């Protein structure tokens, strides 16, 4: 029988392993700093050794390191992966053994191939000590090591096989000789492979099928790789997937061979000359069963998964630094990617996402992040569906308000993979400080925040919905959850800008000075209620009197008779005194869509925040 017996398949391609190990006394395992990304090529915690007296376990390590008998003080030769080996034996080492096993990621159990009693103790003593009472998914992987193979003519594999069948945590059995170096490198290869590419999270050997978490992860990867959303991976999609994960596309004949293997072994794995989800899952199951689970791990790690089959923080939340007074916007790479994603899920090609299509879009997310308020935050079609314009507006809003969540969402969509960039950070632009914009009198920003301030009942919510083209009648028909943000695009000097309206809660108002910060302030008052103007005047004098933030007073319900103030300055006189444009009269109670003129003025004021512009604006509006 072959001197190496793997649970899945015989040994293959071990020479590709980046395995160079140094003695523990020369190379302690370094603790990974928080700033370093997790890399399977640089992270290999301890290997524990359980041996029985007289089995020469002390010879394995020097033989592997130097391919010669142990010579004290000989220097290490270390590359890529550090392995800390902790040998122990007998009763004297029992307490130390338990401590080391608790730290270990893999345990090598050494037995004497010439003494069957040492094999029996694997079942009765050593495995219970290592994994006794542990749940299946949390058991430490074990490598069985049959030493002194140079002293026997036969093989111990037939005796070992029942033990491997009994204990699913046994990854491989290797017969070797520390005397003549037989299979020593292979032994350490399999020990490292058990940690770097563990079988347990992927495959249930008793059920002979992928574990549920692995199936979910691979299903998500399939759905992401299915770029035309037809539930089949075409040759082009398979080659893109292959190149993304492994660096090179498959040769045409190799591609046909893969599909032929799937076709012969499944009833529905190949359809329309492409690979279905079941075919994709079968292929990965086959890799694992043939001992090539590093292939599946390469796929999983390329798509951001860790050893627990969870998406890593490094993948989902790459570090992006946003200095004070700067903002975040999506760049053209992000908009191109998002448009492709929209078109992928717009199956009926009507230019809008139905609720079912939106659900399909979010199928690669752990949960749907957008609720019903979405349809009152962005523009929709006449049928109330999410248009491409509204879709991009919503992403722009998320990027501006919570860039970290935006990066996380782009990660779920596979932005780094399908945009061929290092991370989602390349999808975002961090603007320069607003202070510099004020000094120069212009800005390169494309997204602006307008805070809408006013007393209760003055029409703030209606003003926000009017920005989406809804008059009072349309708003009453589509009454839904109250929203505090709306976003739309506005043309400013021939350039498209995004304007975000944020309704300030009258009860919360501004707890601190920074709460009033924005690109432009819109102070709303009801022409039929003079107290509402007094409220706006008070807010202006308290938070905006310094002139750093452009302000516009807007008189709502302009279709109704205006009430005169009993005393003090009129709204027009107040604005004149403070060198502000006169109040802009607005109503959304007409027959058609509300006039967008006021929103254009707000966007223009945000785009040109200089004092010079304020005076020019005042002259033009007088």
From TrEMBL:
Per the record, what are the reactions this protein catalyses? GTP + H2O = GDP + phosphate + H(+); UTP + H2O = UDP + phosphate + H(+); ATP + H2O = ADP + phosphate + H(+)
Query: Briefly, what is this protein's role?
Result: Atypical mitochondrial nucleoside-triphosphatase (NTPase) involved in mitochondrial trafficking. Probably involved in control of anterograde transport of mitochondria and their subcellular distribution. Can hydrolyze GTP, ATP and UTP.
**SMART domains for this protein:** EFh, RHO
Domain Miro, which positions? 445-608
State the Gene3D superfamilies in the record.
EF-hand, P-loop containing nucleotide triphosphate hydrolases
Q: How does it assemble?
A: Homodimer.
The enzyme's first-digit EC class, named in words, is hydrolase
Which Gene Ontology BP terms does the record give?
A: mitochondrion organization; mitochondrion transport along microtubule
Annotated source species:
Anolis carolinensis (Green anole)
- UniProt entry keywords in alphabetical sequence: Calcium, GTP-binding, Hydrolase, Membrane, Metal-binding, Mitochondrion, Mitochondrion outer membrane, Nucleotide-binding, Repeat, Transmembrane, Transmembrane helix
User: Where would you find this protein in the cell?
Assistant: Mitochondrion outer membrane
The protein depicted here goes by the name: Mitochondrial Rho GTPase
One GO cellular component term, please give it: mitochondrial outer membrane
């Amino acid at each position: 029988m072959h001197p190496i017996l793997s649970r899945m398949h015989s040994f293959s391609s071990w020479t590709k392993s980046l395995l160079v190990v140094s003695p523990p006394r020369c190379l302690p395992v370094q603790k990974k700093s928080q700033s370093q990304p997790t890399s399977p090529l640089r992270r290999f915690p301890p290997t524990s050794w359980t041996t029985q007296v007289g089995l020469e376990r002390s010879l394995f390590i020097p033989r592997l390191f130097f391919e010669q008998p142990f010579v004290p003080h000989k220097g290490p030769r270390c590359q890529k992966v550090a392995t800390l080996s902790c040998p122990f034996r007998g009763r004297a080492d029992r307490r130390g053994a338990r401590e080391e096993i608790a730290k270990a990621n893999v345990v090598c159990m050494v037995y004497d191939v010439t003494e069957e009693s040492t094999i029996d103790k694997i079942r009765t003593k050593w495995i219970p000590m290592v994994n006794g009472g542990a749940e299946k998914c949390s058991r430490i992987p074990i490598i069985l090591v049959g030493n002194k193979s140079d002293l026997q003519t036969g093989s111990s594999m037939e005796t070992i096989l029942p033990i491997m069948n009994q204990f699913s945590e046994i990854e491989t059995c290797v017969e070797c000789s520390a005397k003549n170096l037989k299979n020593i490198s292979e032994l350490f290869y399999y020990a490292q492979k058990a940690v770097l590419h563990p079988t347990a999270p992927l495959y249930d050997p008793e059920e002979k099928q992928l574990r549920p978490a692995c199936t979910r992860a691979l299903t998500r990867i399939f759905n992401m790789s299915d770029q035309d959303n037809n539930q089949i991976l075409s040759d082009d999609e398979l080659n893109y997937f292959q190149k993304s994960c492994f660096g090179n596309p498959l040769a045409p004949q190799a591609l046909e061979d893969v599909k032929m293997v799937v076709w012969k072994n499944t009833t529905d794995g190949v359809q329309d000359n492409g690979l279905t989800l079941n075919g994709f899952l079968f292929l990965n199951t086959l890799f694992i069963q043939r001992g090539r689970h590093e292939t599946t791990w390469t796929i999983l790690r390329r798509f951001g998964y860790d050893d627990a089959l969870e998406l890593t923080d490094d993948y989902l939340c790459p570090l992006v630094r946003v200095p004070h007074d700067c903002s975040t916007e999506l760049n053209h790479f992000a908009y191109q990617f998002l448009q492709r994603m929209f078109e992928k899920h717009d199956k009926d090609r009507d230019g809008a996402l139905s609720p079912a299509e939106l659900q399909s879009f979010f199928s690669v997310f752990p949960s749907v992040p957008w609720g019903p308020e979405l349809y009152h935050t962005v523009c929709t079609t006449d049928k109330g569906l999410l248009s491409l314009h509204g879709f991009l507006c919503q992403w722009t809003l998320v990027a501006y308000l919570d860039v970290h969540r935006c990066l996380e969402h782009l990660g779920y969509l596979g932005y780094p993979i399908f945009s061929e960039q290092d991370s989602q950070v390349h999808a975002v632009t961090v603007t320069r400080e607003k202070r510099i914009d004020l000094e120069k009198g212009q800005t390169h920003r494309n997204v602006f925040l307008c805070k809408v301030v006013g007393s209760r009942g003055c029409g703030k919510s209606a003003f926000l919905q009017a920005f989406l083209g809804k008059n009072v009648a349309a708003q009453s028909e589509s009454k839904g959850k109250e929203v505090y943000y709306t976003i739309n695009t506005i043309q400013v000097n021939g350039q498209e800008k995004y304007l975000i309206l944020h309704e300030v809660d009258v009860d919360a108002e501004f707890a601190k000075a920074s709460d009033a910060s924005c690109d432009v302030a819109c102070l709303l008052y009801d022409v039929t209620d003079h107290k509402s103007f007094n409220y706006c005047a008070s807010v202006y004098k308290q938070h905006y009197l310094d002139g750093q933030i452009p302000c516009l007073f807007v008189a709502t319900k302009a279709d109704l008779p205006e009430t005169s103030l009993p005393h003090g300055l009129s709204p027009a006189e107040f604005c004149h005194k403070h060198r502000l444009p006169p109040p802009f009269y607005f109503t959304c109670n007409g027959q058609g869509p509300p006039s967008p003129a006021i929103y254009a003025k707000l966007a223009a004021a945000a785009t040109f925040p200089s004092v010079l512009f304020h005076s020019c604006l005042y002259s033009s509006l007088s």
